[in-house]
Design a protein that fits this description.
single chain; alpha/beta; Alkaline Phosphatase, subunit A; 7 helices; globular; two-stranded parallel sheet
Length: about 280
C-alpha cells in the first residue's frame, strides 16, 4: 500500500509539473543542407507576387519564411562571400577575379570529415575558373574564390546529383536566378528544380535553404530579402520577429554540423524557433 501511495503522489507531481518546452530545446539539425541562392529581389517582389506561383503556393506552405531577412551589403559578390565565408573581405564591387585562402564553409566541412560541392548552372565545365560566359558569372560562385577549396568541388549543375554531399550549393544561371530575367522565369526554374531536392530531403533528413543575394531595388534601405527553410525538421509558418541575415544563415549551417564559426558570422545567432 505504501508503495502505491508513493507512486500516486509521484504521478500527481508529474501531472502538475510544467511541461517542458520542446521547441525551446530544439536547435538546428539536419543530415544534409542544400543552399539555393537567387538574385536581385527584395521580399515584396517575390513574397505574394503572382509572378512567383510556385514559390508562394507550393514552396512556402512547406517551409518557414523569415519575414525579417536581410542581405549584408550591395552589390552581389560580397554577399555571396559573406554567406560562404563569414566575411565580405572588404570587397565592395563585383570584381573578378579575387582570391582568398581563409577558412570557409567548404574548408571547414572537409576538415570535419564531411563533404561539400558547389554546383553552378551553365558553367562551361567542371572546375572552370573564368569570370564570365553568356549565362554564367563567377561573382555568384564564391567557392571558386578560395584556394583551399579544390577544383573538384566546383561542378556544373545538371540537376540533383546521384550522390548528395553533406552540403551543396546550387547557383542558377544569370537568367534563371532572376538577375537578367523576370521573376516568373526564376519561379519556373524553382518549380522544376526544387521538388526533387525537397523529395530527397524528406527521405534523408535534408534541409533546403532558398535565399536571395540582395534586395534590388532596395526600397527602404534595409536590404530585405526573402529567405525560406524547407525540410522535415522545420516547423512551417512565418517568422515575423527574428531578424536574420547571411551571417545568421551561415551560423546555422555551421551549428548543424558542429563547425567553428568564421569571422563576422561569430557575432550572429543561428536561426531559432524553426526546428521540430
Amino acid at each position: 500500500m505504501k508503495r502505491f501511495l508513493v507512486l500516486a503522489l509521484l504521478a500527481v507531481a508529474l501531472a502538475a509539473a510544467k511541461p517542458v518546452d520542446q521547441d525551446a530545446r530544439a536547435g538546428p539539425h539536419a543530415s544534409h543542407v542544400t543552399v539555393v541562392v537567387m538574385e536581385n529581389r527584395d521580399d515584396q517582389r517575390v513574397v505574394g507576387n503572382s509572378q512567383a506561383p510556385y514559390f508562394n503556393a507550393t514552396l512556402l506552405p512547406q517551409g518557414r519564411l523569415f519575414a525579417d531577412s536581410h542581405a549584408v551589403i550591395h552589390p552581389s559578390e560580397p554577399n555571396y562571400l559573406a554567406l560562404f565565408s563569414g566575411s565580405t573581405h572588404g570587397l565592395t564591387s563585383d570584381h573578378c577575379p579575387v582570391s582568398y585562402d581563409t577558412p570557409n564553409l567548404a574548408s571547414e566541412l572537409v576538415a570535419a570529415g564531411k563533404t561539400f560541392t558547389g554546383y553552378a548552372e551553365s558553367m562551361p565545365r567542371d572546375g572552370y575558373r573564368g569570370c564570365w560566359t553568356i549565362a554564367y558569372a563567377r561573382k555568384h560562385n564564391p567557392w571558386v574564390d578560395f584556394t583551399n577549396v579544390p577544383a573538384t568541388s566546383n561542378r556544373v549543375y545538371r540537376g540533383l546529383p546521384e550522390t548528395v554531399p553533406t552540403v551543396m550549393w546550387v547557383i542558377p544561371n544569370m537568367c534563371n536566378d532572376m538577375h537578367d530575367c523576370p521573376t516568373r522565369v526564376g519561379d519556373t526554374w524553382m518549380a522544376k528544380n526544387l521538388p526533387p531536392i525537397v523529395a530527397w530531403n524528406a527521405k534523408n533528413d535534408g534541409l533546403l535553404i532558398v535565399t536571395w543575394d540582395e534586395a534590388e531595388p532596395d526600397r527602404d534601405g534595409t536590404n530585405r530579402i526573402p529567405t525560406v527553410f524547407v525540410g522535415p525538421m522545420i516547423r512551417p509558418g512565418i517568422d515575423r520577429t527574428q531578424r536574420i541575415d547571411h551571417y545568421s544563415v551561415l551560423r546555422t549551417i555551421e551549428r548543424i554540423f558542429g563547425l567553428p564559426c568564421i569571422g563576422q558570422e561569430c557575432s550572429a545567432s543561428a536561426v531559432s524557433g524553426a526546428w521540430k
